[in-house]
Amino acid sequence: MKDFTFSTLEYVRPDFELLEKESIKMAEEIRQADKYEQIKDVLERREKLNSSIDTMATIAYIRNTLNTTDEFYESEIEFIDERGAAATVKKAEVSKALLESRFREEMIKDLGKEYLVAEQRFVDQFKEELVPFMQQEAKLTTRYQKLMATAQIDFDGQILNLYGIQKYFENPDREVRKGAFKAFSDFYHKNEEEMEEIFDQLIKIRNEMGRSLGFDNFIPLGYMQQERSDYGQKEVAAFREQVRKEIVPLCQEIYNAQAKRIGVDKIMAYDEKFVFPDGNAIPAGDEEYLVAEAQKMYHDMSTETGEFIDFMIAHELMDLKNKPNKAATGYMTSLLDYKAPYVFSCFNHTIFDMQVLSHELGHAFAGYEAMRTQKTSQYYSVSTDIAEIHSMAMEQFAYPYAEQFFGEDADKFRFAHLQEAFTFVPFGVAVDEFQHIVYANPELTPKERTFEWHKLEEKYMPWRAYEEDEFMERGGFWYYKLHIFLYPFYYINYTLTTMGAMEFKQRYHENKEQAWKDYLALCKAGSSTNYLNLLKLANLSVPFEEGSVAKSIAYAKEELLSQIKGQDK
User: Fold this and answer.
1) Which of 125, 258, 437, 517 is at a distance of 20 to 30 A from 85, taking alpha carbons?
2) Whole-model pTM?
């Protein structure tokens, strides 16, 4: 592989006409093949072509999110979304030909059973009638993302974006926290009408897509898009109920203790991020300092992570600074031609920065390992319900290194991070249930949908209280969660995988060597098998099974409650 840095990579508009032409040709070759070697040759050519197209599309996507006002890449994304959706028609023909091939057994022997499972899932979730809907959906999600990225919030004598304002949620001055939260809320309230319009159209479009495939609504298609093939809505609902029973009461206890600790009668929404009366832990340095410390951490953690972080830094595969017009998001993606992960975020000088250096780099490490282990790019990226184990477990593995990033505030970081690992889960399942409600009940008006969120806060976050904020009180908080707009039915994965991360936390404490071995095996496996088999490979519990939530969180819960009791003395 030739040397490169991301900033110097040449962008060439993806040739979708060539992709369509070659897909037609490859589908015919598969149908006419009289020996498996011919099929294998087609698959290798398809992989090379798809990788090239995907790499250019990813470069355009990254550069668009780096500056959402760059008109060139904005137009390129529009082109890619339009033509990419149309080209899917011909790409599906290749998948259909593979599924109909008399060489299925040879393919399974060569590439594994999951290869054709993925091809079948792709065919099942696509038909030509969906193309116009996919194009409309892409335009709407881009519109929402640009609205968020260009946010300008006037506060504290500054013009802040959505990451910048959230830093003030941790300010020791309660009036400052309250004012910052109100400014945050006012941004969404001001743009409520446009967000209502965007989401209303997304619900209609996505439900039409589901109905085009023979479903009642979008929900089954949403599950397919998340690559869920061995569990469904019933299992997810059972998990949410376990969260309500096991974690919601724990979070109420956590927030009661926090109110006492910071000296308030009741925790308000604007207090939730303020964990310690003398201020939360803040990073000990700027972006360059933190990346340098991350490099030291990953070299100490393992040979594999040391090699990985050097690769990321040498090739400039991270952009972490908070800048105007930068998309208000964080993600890891992959440049397939270079077998290179890429990490994007917006640092705001809170503990969030350390979470990026462990969470997103956890994703990136898993991608790096899979791209060097699996023989097909189809296995490089993993289903989202597994992918978040890679990232959230890495957050836990980083705990012993907190002093490097926070100095004498390291214990504050560890406590606040572990607390948030729990308090996040009820919010996460509420996001999931909200999506089930709105797609199953498309007749709801925008205001009725927002009230459904209000009811879910009462169910899963009974401690949540707002003050002098009519918009938030009637349920406006959900608008801030971009996953609801951009990545439907993704968000439950963060909560499912919290269970796996908590199990890894315990095992890393009890037997670090074996825990790392299992984690590394999970990363290397990519998506070469299904969700349940990957859990088994890593020796993790199935989160849907009755009692699994209580079991998975037991060690971390005891650790957190013990620290809370120690603070009360």
Assistant:
1) 437
2) 0.88
